[in-house]
Design a protein that fits this description.
Layout: H1 12-15, H2 20-28, H3 32-39, H4 42-45, E1 59-64, H5 70-83, E2 89-94, H6 97-105, H7 111-114, E3 122-124, E4 129-131, E5 137-142, E6 156-160, H8 168-177, E7 185-190, H9 198-203, E8 207-212, H10 225-233, H11 237-242, H12 258-263, E9 272-280, E10 295-302, E11 307-312, H13 319-332, E12 337-341, H14 347-356, E13 362-365, H15 371-383, E14 387-389, H16 394-401, E15 403-404, E16 407-408, H17 415-428
Length: about 450
């Protein structure tokens, strides 16, 4: 293992406060060994919000937008605790075991990448274990298996993407296991999502919260990334959550509160007896920023009468483009039928699909009632536990969360949600379908 570079002739934490010319003089005069040491001195590179708060606390919750630098902050906190000898047994808990390995351990900002050559841990994937030269050990766990956290004991823990954990018991078990040493602590890094069990953590006097935005880390993001996400999502409800790191409460009177959407999550779908692709065409015809999206949702029904939302292929597209996207989804999922709203296009909708593939069976539906009346029977299916969501539907779920009994509270038109309503109405609410509600006049 490479030897540790000699102690520097400067204080890395104070260099950033020096005049630019003085900084250049210091940095230019560094030896190779000092440059390597500076490269791995987190105090020099970190923003203030990425450094642990002072004082006594048990939980440091970093609640910030995507790209803020949460993962790097969590990994560097673990590294500092271990190098200082304050942590010997560490829990690394990801949403899944794959996330713990791919993000927290092996990721670009994970523990292997940020560790200096003279103190790099040994990673043993089969044991889910990192071992440092000073004897400290970190073990990876999955929040999807809360029982893994019964029994072990730790003096430090890093919980990543806490708001995505599906089982509150994983957090409870982690807190019970955090009992070694004189000052056991935990850092939790997450993009906010409304979770009822997050509120007690935020309200706990032993919790210190750091909040931040994607914008804070612009200097370290890929060129154009921030401009693109701001162009698409700034000012929207989803943007407030994913960019600005705001923990949103449910819209008053929401038809799909956060708890309902959380209960609908699943990893895989069973074999399905019917699959449809539903299309809600945009009222405009272009791809520009001001045009509405065309909603394209794929969903199916199993033989027990449960619906499964499989994919969201929505976007701002011309008629030719959304026609191709809808037919591509039809073929990919081996769907039985394509459902499309005719209001904005009349016969044009069927013509667009037929132009791409005349063999695709199409049912045209007419919105003879308002969005709220059409949405309420579908929301009831969720309340009955009869709809499940596969991963990757966050944009659709953001529109659902913003829809209340007073109407849509988000920006623009909820075209993804409209397509979902058509899909689930066909699968679950058609007149004559066993267990369905009547939707007479909705088609």
């Amino acid at each position: 293992m490479p030897s540790r570079p000699p102690a520097p002739r400067w204080n890395a934490a104070s260099i950033a406060s020096l005049p630019a010319e003085t900084r250049r003089t210091i940095l230019t005069g560094l030896s190779a060994e000092e440059a390597v040491r500076l490269l791995h001195d987190w105090r020099f590179w970190a923003r203030a919000a990425q450094l642990p708060p002072a004082g006594r606390w048990r939980i440091w919750l970093i609640l910030a937008g995507r790209g803020f630098g949460k993962t790097r902050a969590g990994a560097e906190w673990v590294r500092a605790r271990i190098e200082s000898g304050r942590a010997k047994r560490v829990a690394l808990v990801g949403e899944t075991l794959a996330d713990a390995r791919q993000v927290m351990v092996e990721g670009e900002s994970g523990l292997l990448a940020i560790s200096p050559p003279w103190n790099r841990p040994l990673w043993q994937p089969s044991l889910r274990r990192l071992s440092w030269p000073n004897g400290a050990v970190a073990t990876a766990f999955s929040a999807d298996d809360p029982e893994q956290l019964r029994g072990p004991q730790f003096d430090a823990a890093w919980a990543d993407e806490l708001a995505k954990w599906r089982h509150p018991a994983a957090w409870d078990n982690l807190m019970f296991a955090l009992r070694l040493g004189a000052d056991p602590r935990c850092v939790a890094t997450t993009t906010p999502r409304p979770r009822p069990w997050l509120k007690p953590i935020l309200a706990d006097p032993a919790t210190v919260v750091t909040r931040g935005s994607t914008r804070d880390n612009e200097a370290n993001l890929a060129p154009g990334f921030l401009a693109e996400v701001l162009r698409r999502y700034d000012g929207t409800r989803l943007g407030r959550q994913e960019i600005d790191g705001v923990l949103l409460e449910d819209v008053p009177g929401a038809l799909w509160p956060a708890s309902l959407l959380e209960a609908a999550q699943e990893d895989t779908a069973p074999e399905l007896v019917r699959i449809v692709v539903a299309v809600d065409p945009s009222g405009s015809s272009g791809k520009g920023d001001s045009s509405d999206e065309t909603g394209i949702i794929v969903a199916g029904r199993d033989d027990e009468g449960t619906a499964h939302v499989l994919a969201d292929r929505s976007g701002r597209m011309s008629p030719a483009d959304w026609g191709r996207a809808a037919v591509t989804a039809y073929r990919e999922f081996r769907a039985d039928r394509l459902i499309a709203e005719r209001n904005f296009g009349g016969a044009m909708v069927g013509h667009v699909i037929a132009t791409v593939d005349p063999g695709v069976p199409v049912t045209l539906v007419t919105a003879s009632h308002g969005k709220r009346i059409r949405a309420e029977p579908v929301a009831a299916l969720y309340e009955q536990g009869r709809v499940r969501h596969l991963p990757g539907l966050s944009l659709l779920e953001a529109q659902m969360a913003a829809f209340s009994r007073e109407g849509y509270q988000g920006e623009g038109s909820p075209d993804r949600l409209d397509a979902l309503v058509w899909a689930l109405s066909d699968l679950m609410l058609r007149p004559g379908l066993a267990g369905s509600a009547e939707l007479e006049g909705f088609y």
